[in-house]
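hey so i finally got around to running the thing on that chain from the lab meeting. sorry it took forever, my laptop kept dying and i had to restart like 3 times. anyway pasting the input first so we r on the same page abt which one it is
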Amino acid sequence: MLDRIFKLREAGTTVRTEVIGGATTFITMAYIVVVNPAILSFAGIPSGPSTVATILAAVFGTLLMGLYANRPIAVAPYMGENAFIAFGLAALGITWQQRLGAVFVSGIGFAAITLLGVRAWLASSISASMKHSFGVGIGLFLALIGLYETGIVTSFATGTPAAALMSSDGIHLRAPDVPVRIGNLHDPKVLLAIVGFLVIVTLMIRGVRGGILIGIALTAAAGYALGFGQAPKAVMALPLMGDYSLAPIAFKLDISGVLRIGFLPILLTLFLMGFLDTLGTLVGVGSAGNLLNEKGDFPKIERPMMVDAATCMFSGLVGTSTSGAYIESATGIREGARTGLASVVTALLFVACSFFIPLLEPLQHLQYAYAPALIAVGVLMVGGVARIDFKDMTELVPAFATIVVMVFTYNIANGLTAGLVLYPVIKLLAGRAKELSWGSWVLGAACAVYFVFGVPH
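ok and heres what got predicted. didnt touch it at all, straight out
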C-alpha cells in the first residue's frame, strides 16, 4: 500500500530509509517549536497558543507535502518571516490580528499566482546574486536580533544613563556616539549565551543531528542550575486545552484591516519573502537529493508551491506566521529520503511533540538559551554571500544595498524593496538594460510603491 501511495520502488527507496530520513528532518528543525513562539511573543501573540499553532502549521503543511506533492520536504513557519512579523512591523503600530490577516492574504496571493504560473515567472526574473543577497540579509538580521536578545550587543538608547549623554550646558542631551555597543560581558546570562552559541556551532561542526535543539536544551539546563529560569510546570499536557487552547488566537485574524493601500508594502514584502524562500529551498533540497531534472529545475514544482500557499493561509487562520518549505529537509534527504512518506513521518513526530509543550515552553522565555540559535541560523544563511557575483558591479551594488539596508534599518522590507528597485536602475545606468526581463521591471515598479506610497521606517 505504501509503495502504491508513495511510489517507493520507483524512487529507489524503502520504508526504513524514509522513516530514518523523516525522523532526521524532524530532529534538525524541531527548534522552531521553541524559537517561533518566542519571536512572535514580541508581536503580542501569547506563547502557549502560539506553540500549538506552530506545531499545527508544521503538521498540516508537512502532511500535505507528503500526501499531495509526494516530496520529502517538511513545512513550518519560516525564520525571517516571523522576525518581520514581530519586529519589522513593530514601529507601525499594527495589531497582531492584522499581521495574521496579512499572512492569510499573502497566502491567497501565493495560490493565485501559482495557479496562473506567475510565481515561477517572477522568481526566474530575479538574478542569482539578488536571491542570495536576500538570504544573507535575513541571516544577518536574525543574528542581530539574537545578539540583542542575548545582551551581547545593546543600544545606547536603552543601555546608557541620561547623565552619560548630558551636553556641556547641563540641560540638553547629546546624541550617542554610536547606535549600538557591546553589552555587559560580566553578566552571567550574557556569558551563558556566548557559551550556548559555542555549544551549538560545535555540535553543528561535528555533524550532530539536532545540534541547535540540543544546544538550546544544554544552555537552558546550565541556566537552571545557576538559578536563571523556572522549571517546567509539567512534562505532558493535552494540546488544544487549557493554557494551550487555540481560542485566543485562532480565527482572530483581521483581513478587512489589511485590504487597504497602506498595507500594500507589507503584503508585498510577505509575498516576496515567501515565494523566494520557497523557491530557494526547493532548489536547495532538490540539489542535495538529486531531485532536479537535467535543466536544474524542480519537477512539478507547482505542487509543492501550492502546498506552501495552502499552509500560509492555514497559518494565518490558526495564529502563526508565514510557513513554507524548510531547508533542514536536506538533512533527511541526505539520509536517503526520496518520497512523501518521509514527510508523513516528520508530521507524525510533530504531532507527538504537541503533547510535551509544557516541557518545551519554559525555553521560550530564556533569551540566553534560544537567542544563540538565531545567531547560529544566521551563520548558516550568510554563507550565500559566496554566491553573489562580486566581479559584476551591476549585480553587486543591488545585492549589497539589499543586505545593508535590511540590517542597518532593522527592517527586512526596506532591504528587499531597495535591492529590487535598485537592480533595474543600475542595469539601465550601466547601459545593460537588455539583460533585464519584464519581470525585473514589474518587481522594481511594485517595490517602488513601498517607498512612494507606503510607510518605510
